[in-house]
Target: Type II secretion system protein
Amino acid sequence: MKKFTLIELLVVIAIIAILASMLLPALNQARGRAKDINCVSNQKQLALGCIQYSEDHNGFLPLYGASTRTNPVYAKWQTLILPYVYPGVPVGTDNNAYLQIADGKAKPRGLFKCPSATPTAETIAAQQSNNYGINLYISCISPSDPNYPLGAALKRIKNPSQRFMISDMQDLTNANEPRIMNKNDFGFRHMGGRGAVIGYADGHVSAMNSDGIPAAGWYVYFWGQAVAN
Model:
């Protein structure tokens, strides 16, 4: 049997390396696309959870976050919609019920974790830095404080397919405020790092390039359009 010479082996190795270099970009692209699809699925279910919550609460979306657990009007939106997306999971007064905590380690329940997000330490403090945020302008901030406006009742939103409700969000230093209040709060983890997946007030979900997201404002329709109660 003929033995391969060193030169022949080097040629074979070189060919394999060339083929691998040609295939890896396609594999990475496919992997990224799979993560995009997973994120769309997550946000679709979260958006529907927000809509179901609103149907049981006079049409209003859940609070965007919490300043304290002792005040009953405050609670994180993720925890408030938990019964709608994870039926049977006990909530009680725990604002972090959307996390799975065991043996001192914490991680978000599947729907609350963007597959393209950068992994963080498995501590409660680190995992509270949220993958997804709710639109501050249409989320009720504090129904007991007259200095803050109520959010928009979904039934009064015109063209809900154009009003963003939830989206990919950058990790926050203040985990008590899982909200998006300006363009810089978006987490651009998709479309090659140039776009975010966005869930709208009608329940549909799609990706948008960062260039298509307008600056925030009450009178910008994508955000608030002068939200009225």
